Amino acid sequence: MTDEIDEKEIRLASEHPRGTELRRLGPYRDAMRSPEAYARFPERDRDAIVRWAETRRLVRERTGLDHDPSNLADPLLPVDRLRAHVLEGERIASGTAAFEDPGGDLLVVVSRLRKRT
Length: 117
Known about the structure:
This protein has helices spanning 7-15, 17-25, 35-40, 43-63, 79-94, 106-114. The chain has 117 residues and is mostly helical. Helix 2 packs antiparallel against helix 4 and helix 5 packs parallel to helix 6.
C-alpha cells in the first residue's frame, strides 16, 4: 500500500472534487461496476482506488463535502458507498469469508485485510 495521503492531495480533492474523481477513477470504470470486477484488478490498480476512497473520506471529514443528491449533475460517488465497494472487493480478492469494517483510515483497513491471506 502506498504512503499516507498528503495535504496537497486533500486540498486538490477539496477544490476540484468532481474532476479529480473522474481522473482518479476513470481508468478503473470496470472495477467500479461490481466488487467482483474490482477484485480481479491487479493490486497496484486497486491501490489507486483505495487511495482515492481514503482521500474522499478525509475530505468529507474536514469539509463535509460528499455526494449531493439534490445536484443531478454531481458525479461524485457517496463516500460510504465507495468505501463499502472497495472493502467488499478487497474481501473477495483476499478470499476472506467475512469482514466487518472497523472504520477509520481505509489505507490501514485494506492493508490489514490483505494480510489475512
